[in-house]
Amino acid sequence: MAQTTAVFINHSSSDAITDFVLKHGNGVKGLSEIGLKNLPKQYIQPLEEIISEAKIMPQASIPIIDMSELDDPSVEEVVRRAAEKWGFFQIINHGVPIEVLENVKEATHRFFRLPAEEKRKYLKEFSPSNNVRFGTSFSPEAEKALEWKDYLSLFYVSEDEASVLWPSVCRDQVLDYMRRSEIVIRRLLDVLMKNLKVTEIDETKESLLMGSKRINLNYYPICPNPELTVGIGRHSDVSTLTVLLQDDVGGLYVRGDDDYWIHVPPVNGSLVINVGDALQIMSNGRYKSVEHCVMTDGSKNRISIPIFINPRPSDKISPFREVLASGEKAVYKEVLYSDYVKHFFRKAHDGKKTIDFAKIRRI
Ligand code: OGA
Ligand code: NI
């Protein structure tokens, strides 16, 4: 059966491939597993989107911060500097048990191992809720070139809703990972807020900083031509903070100075933290939401599991009053968070352009 499909796909029109991947729930994982020899042309990205050896800064790296030392004020300072300068860092000794991380990785593999007919139930057309979505690439309708990635995206509303709607093969492990990472997220937000003169996180601020959560299970299958495509194109996240668990394959790159990129090496047991656009806006640009992307691998399947800590969709976000108290001019205007997110998904990944939506234009 796989062999016939392979012959069929290798000689197929791009419409047939699109149907196979997008409509039938096979994803790019399905394409990869039938042993496709050449990357279909709709996945070929412009050359400038590919990070070749020449564009990598080998000597540079983002900070790795030991959270067990966070009571030391100098370590707090390291966190703030990392969020200001790099927008990215890794944390170790963060308090989320290693089994919880291992279990959610295993659960991710279990979900993607389900037959296409099962995963297909969560495609946009069939999913019983907008809060559970299986898909491929990023915004296929808006993209000139597709991305080599499948995903399951889960918007968290409550444990009760999750227990009804989320796929049972991964639900408990994902919820556990979300619950257990909560403490370290709060701790990081506290440290980052203190530096903005936000000393009290009241209910309104709590909603703005961490009022909603989305968790994605990302699957980047082995790619026949990794030098021609991307796993995720250049983008910044629209979150307040993102917590990302990656496996040991590697392939995540962060923009460094100028036109160079920095690899985020897998560190066993660590979590990658990055600033998203919402925090850049609320901090009036103090904390940076830095562009990043994922390259594909020619010999290994890769998974990653980001938790996007977001404002609530109904929140209006703008620079915090405390940040502007000293007379600093607002760089961003007030925007409804759900409008901001809609703007992000309406277009293909395009680097740092999403944030222009909230920029104040001065004449
Ligand atoms: C994302 C992202 C990086 C990765 O999902 O927004 O940047 O390593 N993921 O998968
Ligand atoms: Ni991202």
From TrEMBL:
A GO biological-process term: coumarin biosynthetic process
Any coiled-coil regions, as ranges: none
GO molecular function: 4-coumaroyl 2'-hydroxylase activity; metal ion binding
Domain of life of the source: Eukaryota
InterPro entries: DIOX_N (IPR026992), IPNS-like_FE2OG_OXY (IPR044861), IPNS-like_sf (IPR027443), Oxoglu/Fe-dep_dioxygenase_dom (IPR005123)
Catalytic activity: (E)-feruloyl-CoA + 2-oxoglutarate + O2 = (E)-6-hydroxyferuloyl-CoA + succinate + CO2; (E)-4-coumaroyl-CoA + 2-oxoglutarate + O2 = (E)-2,4-dihydroxycinnamoyl-CoA + succinate + CO2
Pathway connected to this protein: Phenylpropanoid metabolism
Similarity comment: Belongs to the iron/ascorbate-dependent oxidoreductase family.
UniProt protein name: Fe2OG dioxygenase domain-containing protein
